[in-house]
Predict the structure.
Amino acid sequence: MASETRQPDDKPETGFDRPSSVLGGVPSYTSVDTQISDIVLHRPVKRGWLFGLVISFTFVMILLYAITYLLIKGVGIWGINVPVAWGFAIANFVWWVGIGHAGTLISAVLLLLKQKWRTSINRFAEAMTLFAVACAGLFPLIHLGRPWDFYWLIPYPNTMSLWPQFRSPLVWDFFAVSTYLTVSVLFWFLGMVPDLRAVYNQARTPWKKFIFGILSLGWRGDAVHWKYYNSAYYLLAALATPLVVSVHSIVSLDFAVAIVPGWHSTIFPPYFVAGAILSGFAMVLTLAIPLRRFYHLESLVTMRHLENCAKVILVTSSIVGYGYCEEALMAWYSGDPYEKYMYINRILGNYGFAFWLLIFCNVLVSQSLWWRKARLNIGWLFALSLIVQLGMWTERVVIVVQSLHRDFMPSAWHMYSPTIWDWATLTGTIGLFFALFFLFIRVLPMISISEVQELSKEQEEETGIGPNATTSGRSRKEEKP
Amino acid sequence: MSVTDSAPQPEPDTDLETLRARLAATQGPAFWRGLEDLAQTPAFQEAARREFPRLGSVLAEAKQIGAGKTKAQEVSRRAFLTVMGASLALAGLSGCATQQPQEKIVPYIDPPNDSEPGKPLFYATALNLGGCGLGILVTSREGRPIKIEGNPTHPSSLGATDAIAQASLLSLYDPDRSQAVIHRGVPSTWDDFLNAATAQMQAEQATGGAGLRFLSGGILSPTLAEQRQALLAQYPNARWCSYEPIGRENMQAGAQMAFGADVNTVYHFEKADVIVALDGDFLLTLPGHVRYAADFGRRRSVRKAKVDLNRLYVAESSPTITGAMAEHRLAVRPGEIEEIARALMTTLRNGGVSGSFSATSATQSWIATLAGDLQAHRGRSVVVVGETQPPIVHALAHSLNGMLGNVGQTVTYTPPLEAVVEGQAQSLPQLVADMQSGQAQTLVMLDCNPVYASPADLNFAASLPKVAFTVHLSEYEDETANLTQWHLPQSHFLEAWGDTRAHDGTITLQQPLIAPLYATHTPYELLSILAGKLDRSNHDILRDRWKQVYQATGASVDDFDLFWRTILNDGVVANTALPVFPATLLPAFAGSPPEAARAQTSQPSDPQALDLVFTPDPTIWDGRFANNGWLQELPKPLTKLTWDNAACISPRTAQDRGFTDGEVVILRYRGRRVEAPILILPGQPEGVVSISLGYGRTRGGNVGVGAGFNAYALRTSDAPWFGTGLRLEKTDKRVSLAITHSHHTMEGRDIVRAATITTFQHNPGFVHDHQNDPERPESLYPEYHYPEYAWALSIDLTKCIGCNACVTACQSENNIAVVGKEEVLRGREMHWIRIDRYYEGKNMDKPNGTYFMPVACMMCEHAPCELVCPPGATLHNRDGLNQMVYNRCIGTRYCSNNCPYKVRRFNFFQYADLSPLKQLMRNPEVTVRSRGVMEKCSYCVQRIENAKITADKEKRLVHDGEITTACAQACPTNAIVFGNLADKNSLVSQLKREPHDYSLLSELNTRPRTTYLGKVSNPVENSGA
Amino acid sequence: MKEALYGYLASFEQPEDLLQAAREAHKRGHRRMQAYSPFPVEGLAEAVGFRFNLLPWLVLGGGLTGGAGGYFMQYYSCVISYRDNIGGRPLNSIPSFLPITFEVTVLAAALTAFCCVFLLSGLPRLYHPVFNAPAFARETQDRFLLCIEAADPIFEARDTWRFLNGLTAQEVVEVHA
């Protein structure tokens, strides 16, 4: 089917004559539809996909084992102690939530900014968001001393008519993350309904017909549906945009509200959000690059997308770098002995190596993206995306652990060292994330069909050429005598 | 389990008449499990015995978390099953454990007949500790002793206790305690022992006891002393030997040297303006140290109205808390102390240092300053020497005190407390010789563990099997029990009758709080058995003896009951303090003292060789408390080390030889070797290695076995306390030392705020002359008002001696769990109150100051922890207490992160030991915390609420001083004061009005309810020392 | 046996054609008709007579209610239900209550939007007569369809049929209910 597509080049990795174009060539409506829905419907299970799924599923098993052991023994199996009562768990939480930002950012903010290039990557970016937030949400629950009582954070009617303590940032967290998750799901599903209908139409077997029929809610593409659909979609985008900013701001308040030196800082919200977007877009690259390769979506996910992601990474990593400098400045300028000690200790202390690692990964490496050559080098982008992931994770760990391990009372100072279980949980959630993603690309349209169709229409209006322009009923009528 | 078991049983028969008779006759608990129980058939006794012996090990295996021997994660299925079995067995035990003893014992305040359930009773008794008795009041709940406090009327206590006294409660409920008679390693019965013993004693009778030998610790009990006399009269050729690992041989010999007679020295620090301690740790190890600490503390009060400060000079060979309190501290090699004493004497005599004395300039000026000070305070000074110094130094001290006219003022002499007066130093070697030669046929060891604790050169263990008949009475199946034929389980002092003497000789009656948990008996009963009186119970022995004493005073027997009642009630027998002993110095010491051989004190020829010093362990003493989890986990005052002992060396020495903390070295000393981990200790004299006794146990309980190394292996009878010629050899091994507070300095933060007295007089508010410390920072938030009660704590850093009594008292009062070494290593210790230790000054070898700071929950008015708790599990109550609602806590640990003082503790695992025995010990008013819950100091809210209820019933407010917290109550120096801020006249309010009152980290504006009084010291200004 | 006629369905290949057709139909007075397209076509809804979009106002209402409710919940729990002294903060700690207020606002608004888009467009509806038209299977691919219902006020079989065929429709089919 893809033959109908006019592609400027067959070897996407190499020299791009038109990297500026959003779509590599203008596909016909049909080709878009079939090309995407075929991955879901007709494409046989490939060994590569199976392999990936099995690997990541193994890690899911490790995660389950780690959590079971945790529930049996208690959080003591981790390296945490007093003063470092939060360890990997919270760092991972912050990291995952951060990754979860890119999806909504791409689909919402860029939608409002009328960034056309978003269309072909927003669907799986949103999925990525959901899975990342799911992984993130796991940690605040299992890090509790008594996880089975987590629901005490929810304001629900109970016999004692007890309430959560609404001044606690952790309660804010709970609301922020759960709201973010809900809205993202709604946004994601709403955007997918027309495509589900499309897949339904393509589906042959009764089962698939049944499932996708149900999921698509009987969508008919009626003009009025589209009307409501659009306004709702844009409204959700408008709502999701402040949400994206608020979520990580509130997560950052977990630290900023506390009085711990190294946490108690007003720069945290913006600086966390920037960091979140950084890691988020890095994750988009980590996923997009292999995807377009294995599923031959080079025409849909083009170099333009990758380059734009690279640009976002460059900007946000610079913001994060600014954040580091600002922290140093405040440590010095505030004259607060504890802040000062904390920052010097952060650079030169027991965990100094981690600090330099994150400076390297988050700030220095991404500066290479000032050069277009680097932005167009797929291999480099992929490597860089992984480096940034590592860097951002390290940053979270440093903020959580290093700040706590030496605060006000020297008598209470103590080192923190993670145990095997800390690592198992971390790698386990990574496995969970990818397992979910592997399943997603097989069972749901990973790229928005209707939006790409719309886009291709607009493009052929701009360019005047396109597969759909040929057989215009009107022109045919003209020929009639 | 009652004393009747030891009575010889007639032939078993179940004819009902006899049964009824026996049931009527029995003095023991009138419980019987069926006819054959009453019948006491051997079959049944066998069964009963098989049921209980060795329960300890099984149980202890179960409480691995508590014992900390292995990680909590590793409770094997087998262990689990055995525990379930054991629990069932013990459920029965705990049932019969909650009964009162049959004999009449008398509560401190209420007579027992009006005891109501849920209402605690207090009984006065005493425990023997470090060479004298300490009077205590024991809180009893439904017949279970659950808390130990000091007895205000007891001279050695004055209402205070120390850490060991507090922790001795845990030993009572120790499942590892010896629970059955063991004969050659096989469980046996008291009856079998009786038969064997009777036969053996008859044999000895023939020879007048020529082969009969006794070995005991120092005997403080007058009754036991009389029994001893009687026995020796009965067996004229028998020999009684006495050995205490931490005894008073040197003091005794010193007294002999100076006075020609043994005396017991009683110090009166409250009268002393200048105190000189030569290796004399009178705040923690000297007999009577609790009282001495109190007297010392009374003279350490700095108030705006009145300043009353003594001055302390300490020359010591290994750092102690006494040294930490000193204005002028001198760290010297142990041998130099004698020189210093002599130099001091000559200086005082002819106002100039004797030429023969070669010392560093620091030492010179220290002596010069001191001499001047002593001259200025004749009769108001005191020179104290510790047991670790040789007799000559004690003699010199006596002579100095005499010269300074302190005798009768700050120092008084009484006849010795202990009954055994003949040369103890020689008696043990003599005994071993007899054992070797086979002269000793029968050896009876009372409450001692010579195989473990006797000097290594005597090789007691090897000679023990040579004795035909050996008996060992002890609370634990220890190293000695392992090698004796008959091991007899001994009762804990809370299960036993007895009497003992305070540091000034005052006698206290010991009364049991609970019937023995196991088939245990006391030394009194054993001696009575050996004397052939088989049927006398512990109670009878004591009561009869005191009846005689009473009659001897000429009083009529009819009043005896009243008398008996009174002495039990008061916890002291009035005017039994020993009379002043007219000790006159022998001419040798009245004049200038004889020159001593300087062999030992001269610098060692081998530059590599170091001095070795043995010290009593500040927590487990000589090893007898090695199986006590509270004491094992109690951070040692200066090193903050738990669960271990170590070879302490000075930073300089470590630097020179390239040693680091935890590095295992081989200590080679006089042909013996032992491996020990290095611990670098600021203030340790250079070239001196101190090791503490009591560790490296191989038997005697799962808690103690395997912890630390055995210092006794290097200890020889000729140099029991120190000697030179020690060499250290590197190994490639390391051990991780569980140190709770590894950071030495304050990083220049205003945590402990100290000044000299002159500074204070010029600027009383010196504590506030620090950067970013506003008196009371502004706040945006509205004030909350507390009209009735606003509880608060004031801690006087000038008075705190860092003795740890408060820590253990809190642990006992609040059911605080023991977590074990592994968990302490991870920084998860649970103490609600900790004592921070900071050093001041650039030179870590000679810190200018050592500061102790007790830190518990500050009860902040603007509590950062409350703000961040998601379920609202921690919040303020009406009285402004920052309270922790365990049931509501879900364990986010956010509060701990946000607590700047880091006083919150988290149950990372199920730390609380739920075994039946430990349940008996719990304070029923304090929740036992489960896994996953945060906990912290509550200002002993249970006590507060009790007092409020009483007050409400009487329609009044709680008076000042009506209640106090466990820490404050235990504190010997009254450094901790608890009270109501709302009451402007309360003591705590007054203290908080003091100019040098400050709150910790006040710049954070947390507004703590707990505040500190800055530390004020009283050095001789412009002194070099 | 033939079912009742639901309407005529004209399929076009180009959105413009569909738009044109819709406009003309509307001009002729047809009211009960729907236009179907694989992707939104600008102005198509208005062409088939869509006038007022209620959705944004519902979302606004939802958001405001949610916000008010969110703040009240916190106020009630801290000031009315449990007047606890938490870290010496005032009972009504306004700044601390704002984050949750905001989140609840957004949540409520989003839920309203999501629910209303389906309610207003009468979904979910798993059966619809137009599904019977075979052409409709390509509706999500490349077909642009216009359906005039038989229930239309001025629907008249032959006339409407002719009209539709007169347009640029590729084909016109009957749709049976």
Q: What stands out?
A: Residues 1-21, 469-481 of chain A have pLDDT under 50 and may be disordered.
